[in-house]
Design brief:
Residues 92-119 form a coiled coil. With 124 residues, the protein is mainly α. It has four helices and no strands. The protein has one domain. Helices cover 90% and strands 0% of the residues.
């Protein structure tokens, strides 16, 4: 009886090692391809159960670290977007000032043209 148990334990440990290798390989591959790493995607890629991924501390930690790194990258992208949004507002403001200045100059030139046309008409 003890012999059967040892055979089962050997089989279990072998299956556990294979599942661990599949999961870690899937995580590495997804990182290389810059794909999002989460429990569901690792489950789909490796064929390992989600329950195993959640219950195995090393794999769970690895997945959670990858998720944190992805969140950090998103925050950096958002900061870059905010900077460009602010600079865009400054550019728009400068263009609005320039438009107002050109419109004022246009008004003055039209008025000057009317005065000159009036003088020209009076001299004829």
């Amino acid at each position: 009886m003890a012999d059967m148990t040892s055979n089962l334990e050997g089989s279990w440990s072998k299956r556990k090692a294979e599942a661990r290798k599949k999961a870690l390989d899937a995580i590495r591959e997804m990182q290389m391809k810059d794909e999002p790493v989460n429990f569901n995607s690792v489950h789909n890629r490796s064929g390992v159960s989600k329950n195993y991924l959640y219950n195995e501390p090393e794999i769970r930690k690895s997945i959670e670290e990858c998720r944190q790194q992805e969140k950090s990258r998103l925050v950096v992208r958002k900061v870059k977007y905010d900077k460009t949004s602010q600079s865009k507002d400054v550019i728009i403001q400068a263009k609005e000032k320039r438009i107002a200045k050109l419109e004022e100059e246009n008004r003055k030139l039209k008025h000057e043209l009317e005065v000159l046309r009036g003088l020209l008409y009076n001299t004829k």
